[in-house]
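Loading example: each entry is read as two labelled lines plus one structure line.
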Amino acid sequence: MSEFDYRNGISRRKVLECMTWCGTGVLWTISGGVPHSLGIMGEAQAADTRGLTFLQISDSHVGFDKPANPNALGTLEEAIKKVNALPQKPAFMIHTGDITHLSKEKEFDDADHIISQSRLDVHYVPGEHDFVDTDRKIYQDRYGRAAKGHGWYSFDANGVHFIGLVNTFDLKAGGLGNLGTEQLEWLEHDVKGRSASTPIVLFAHVPLWTVYQDWGWGTDDSAQALSYLKKFGSVTVLNGHIHQVMQKVEGNVTFHTARSTAFPQPAPGTAPSPGPMKVPEDQLRKMLGIANVNFKQNEQRLAIVDSPLQG
Amino acid sequence: MLRPLIASSVLGAVVGSVLAAGVLFARAEATPGTVFIDNFIFNPKAVTVKAGTTVTWTNRDDIVHGIASSNNAFKKSPAMDTDDSYSFTFTTPGTYQYFCYLHPQMVGSVVVEATTGSIATQ
């Protein structure tokens, strides 16, 4: 399963753990680069949550209207209501792509209308569904004006360095997600002068680890990208695309994928294809959701809590 | 007299079924330039057509797909939602590799053969 190999002092770990669908989510932390599971969200909320808290939403697929969820805009709105009801207001939100289903102006408008109700700054990266307009311009016109290339960028918050990458532009026949040479060079330069103690949060749409090659759930040149981050003690990689929670720990790198707000997809290999999964109506909202990420400065902790819309 | 009658009607039914199956089979194969997308797979994965044939892809999945040439040898399709089709007429003989530009693990090919006497014009 693992394609990365870190041998610099930290024993090799292979942890592939599907998060539970029950309860309100699972919290885990990174302390000195070593992750610990802390428990379910109830405990997390009881814990001291001072520090940086931000949210991740993903795969809103506004415009999707198929049987797996005829009202993807409605469930996005439910997700944003859940964000607004959080006891602690997050510093900002990241959206890990597939904002829309068909890259239509109206879909982007509808998504903006709902997401803006969170009154949070939102840092976006594009999914492949955000690049299907003929000229592949709408996403960049709306979200990527200050970014490099096809929309990659970095920023700092509370001592954490955030890097938003694009691995959904110019996909290659037979391949997986793709970052490309220009972006890789930019990334190498972006992290070069930074202290190894700087916590890094890397986010992109398609997983930056190979979840399931047969379904294209990985990124061809992610190992190259991660090689630039070897010196950092704490690297957290946040992705979407696969519409389910998964995590893996590999040395100092923790990989995590968030749920969609639109529709679930099957676990790897459990269906003929990765297409939208139709589940009983009363199960749908247990399989959609958001992720809440908390970084505690003094403890070098970063905790992720996945919360389904319901259950 | 009864037995042969029964036998011939059974035989007739069998022949009829075979003919019906043959007709169905012929209909499914009747258009060499037809490709369906089912469960993230191009079906058939490889098609061979004569130059001048229009190839039509139809998406029968619940998710968007898109057709793109692997080396920009033909115009890419718009995003194809469920039941959308895309057609392209191949006039120049050759082998055209293509893929889904949303799900690049999906690949297929179109082999275009010269029509008799038309090679010089290609």
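The first strand of chain B starts at residue 34 and ends at 38.
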